[in-house]
Write a structure and sequence with these properties.
This protein has 103 residues and is an all-alpha fold. Helix content is 57%, strand content 0%. It contains 4 helices and no strands.
Length: 103
C-alpha cells in the first residue's frame, strides 16, 4: 500500500473497487511522467557504476566496451565452482561431520 500522504498528493485516494477505473481515467487524461530511477549518481555514487556494469551499461547510458568477454567467463566459472563446492560441503561433508560428532 502506498503512503497515504503520497497517494493524496497524486490523487489516488479512492476505494479499492473504484481503483481500476480511476487509474484508467488518469491515464487517458495526460501522458505519464518519465520514469525516474531510484539509484542516481547523487545518491549512489559507488553502487551505480558497478550495478550498471553488470548489465554492460555505462553511467552515461551507453553500452560498455568489452575486451573479449574473458572477465565474464572467468566470473561465471568461479561462481559455478563456488556454488558446487558449497553444495558439496552442505550436502556431503556436513552430514558426515555430524555423524562423527555423534559417536
Amino acid at each position: 500500500m502506498a503512503d497515504g500522504r503520497w497517494a493524496r498528493r497524486q490523487g489516488l485516494v479512492v476505494g479499492v473497487d473504484r481503483l481500476p477505473g480511476h487509474v484508467a481515467e488518469r491515464l487517458r487524461g495526460r501522458p505519464l511522467p518519465p520514469v525516474r530511477p531510484f539509484y542516481t549518481e547523487r545518491n549512489a555514487p559507488v553502487l551505480l557504476p558497478g550495478l550498471l556494469a553488470r548489465y554492460g551499461v555505462g553511467t552515461d547510458g551507453r553500452p560498455l566496451e568489452s575486451q573479449d568477454g574473458s572477465r565474464n567467463l572467468l566470473r561465471s566459472a568461479v561462481r559455478v565452482s563456488a556454488r558446487n563446492m558449497y553444495r558439496h560441503g552442505a550436502n556431503v561433508v556436513a552430514p558426515a561431520l555430524r555423524k562423527l560428532s555423534a559417536l
